[in-house]
Specification:
Aldehyde Dehydrogenase, Chain A, domain 2, binds succinic acid, 2 domains, disordered N terminus, Aldehyde Dehydrogenase, Chain A, domain 1, Ald_DH/histidinol_DH, 7-stranded mixed beta sheet, 527 residues
Length: 527
């Protein structure tokens, strides 16, 4: 090593260690809240190593509640993503041949470790995402349930058929093989569950993965990596590339890399379309779980108490920041006024805004100030167009509130011409529309570019069935506000994307079908 190289290396090392020291002081607060502080990792995870891949640049992760820096992560670049893909490819060559029983055991261990560390995982999620602690725990349980589900599916990969060939005396067999290295791109709204839903299926199938978590919420992904290592996930099978400034180029690298055989993405329709374009040149298998604009329908004959409960769940989960949140609530005219008033009473009673780490808080901040500004713009547009504010709204914002807060808000007399009817509210705003009959309802409810989830409340079986069949969405909740369940295939139609996650079919997304035609079997053939 010459002197100049030595000096440069020293400089890089000292800058790295300065940054490491700086990051540990920023992250000391969160670390002090954890029973197992080693779950908070501030490095990327590639090939079983905690690493910055020799990069010195880092980015800050901030707490949406108080704007304070929670810690830092390496700001990795396209070449680091490519390196992770190569590492994942090497790992895939042997992982694909591990017995299903072994992959199932790893997933079961991972699930059990998540349950054991539920409190810490929830605390990490709360600090980086702003989700109130109890709700964060619910996400960790939901996230772990995908490992639980897919460990079973790994064992039950009943793949293949035996088919009598068109040619005399021949037979055709099919079976399924793991697709290969998977690029997993996940959002900030479910920092843990959107990873486990994809990765559980990928590992059950025998694939390796490169995860690019959202820049806002990398620590949940890195905590999963730490637990994955303890669970026995072989080095290189689960990799996490953290990035912020190079988000677009890292995504593009995963999409364009020939060794990546599948992209599984959850996020906006706009980005999904871009990733699909980028994946075209290598003809990748894709799953796209994109935006929604869920209609939530309440007929005159509905069980109103049940509908109130369901709407609370479908609206306020993650402070309204989910793709399956009720975006347009259609109430039949006979119960419209009563329902809106009763819902306002429940919201006033149950939605308690505040510090998400405090017990009793049910409404945390949104992910960023920009998110709160967007919600505020949609509410303003609706009120200018004639919607009435029943609760919350701009007036209810207090100067002491963090800039990321938006109050629980109820709007009534919404119209299809308003922006909130076409765009995802992605915040704690419930928008009520009145409807008279099915003709009007279907015209309005299906007038959306996207089609992820929909909900209907009625006591009439024929109505429930008709709505379920005619609603242009990938999922329908009948008399329930919750469609998310590891056993149930999750996904949309129209511009909400394609592919299904969870359920029995969730595994297929990470497999390819192989056909074998067998001749020369010596079978008797009658001419
Ligand atoms: C999402 O919002 O993208 C996922 C929500 C869920 O899994 O329930």
């Amino acid at each position: 090593m010459n002197r100049a190289t030595f000096t440069i290396n020293r400089l890089v090392q000292s800058s790295l260690s300065r940054r490491t020291m700086a990051s540990s002081s920023a992250s000391a607060l969160l670390r002090s809240k954890l029973r197992d502080p080693s779950l908070l990792r501030e490095q990327a995870y590639i090939g079983g190593q905690w690493t910055a891949n020799n990069k010195t640049a880092t980015f800050d992760v901030t707490n949406p509640y108080d704007g304070k820096v929670v810690g830092t992560c390496p700001d990795l670049e396209a070449e680091d993503a490519a390196n992770a893909v190569e590492v994942a490819q090497t790992a895939f060559q042997s992982f694909r041949h591990t017995p299903a029983r072994q992959r199932a055991t790893i997933l079961q261990n991972w699930h059990d470790l998540m349950k054991e560390h539920e409190q810490d995982l929830a605390t990490i999620l709360t600090y980086e995402n702003g989700r109130p602690l109890e709700a964060a725990k619910a996400e960790i349980q939901y996230a772990a349930s995908f490992f639980g589900w897919f460990q079973g599916e790994a064992l039950r990969a009943y793949s293949g058929e035996t088919i009598e060939s068109s040619a005399p005396g021949q037979r055709v067999l099919t079976f399924k093989q793991p697709v290969g290295v998977v690029g997993v791109l996940t959002p900030w709204n479910f920092p843990s569950a959107m990873i486990t839903r994809k990765v559980g299926a990928a590992l059950a199938a025998g694939c390796s993965v490169v995860v690019k978590p959202a820049a806002e919420t990398p620590y949940s992904a890195l905590a999963l990596a730490e637990l994955g290592e303890r669970a026995g996930v072989p080095a290189g099978v689960f990799n996490v590339v953290t990035t912020h400034a190079h988000l677009a180029e890292v995504g593009k690298t995963l999409c364009e890399h020939d060794l990546v055989k599948k992209i599984s993405f959850t996020g906006s329709t706009r980005v999904g379309k871009l990733l699909m374009e980028q994946s075209a040149s290598t003809l990748k298998k894709l799953s796209m779980e994109l935006g929604g604009n869920a209609p939530f329908i309440i007929y005159d004959d509905a069980d109103i108490d049940l509908a109130l409960k369901g709407l609370m769940a479908a609206k306020f989960r993650a402070s309204g920041q989910t793709c399956v949140c009720a975006n347009r609530v259609y109430v039949q005219e006979g119960v419209y006024d009563t329902f809106v008033q009763r819902f306002a009473d429940v919201v006033k009673r149950e939605m308690v805004k505040g510090d998400p780490t405090m017990a009793g808080t049910t409404l945390g901040p949104l992910i960023s100030e920009a998110a709160a500004t967007k919600v505020s713009g949609l509410v303003e547009d609706a009120t200018k167009g004639g919607a009435q504010v029943v609760l919350g709204g701009q007036e209810a914002r207090q100067s002491s509130d963090p800039s990321t807060f938006y109050p629980a808000t109820i709007l009534k007399d919404m119209q299809p011409s308003m922006r909130a009817s076409r765009e995802e509210l992605f915040g704690p705003v419930t928008a009520f529309y009145r409807f008279k009959d099915d003709d009007e309802l279907f015209k309005k409810a299906n007038d959306a570019e996207v089609g992820l989830a929909g909900y209907v409340y009625t006591e009439k079986l024929s109505r429930a069935w008709r709505v379920s069949e005619l609603l242009e969405t990938g999922m329908v909740g009948v008399n329930t506000g919750m469609v998310s369940d590891p056993v149930a295939p999750f996904g949309g139609i129209k511009h909400s994307g394609f592919g299904r996650e969870g359920g029995r079919v969730g595994l297929d997304e990470f497999q390819v079908l192989k056909t074998i035609t067998l001749g020369g079997l010596g079978l008797p053939v009658t001419k």
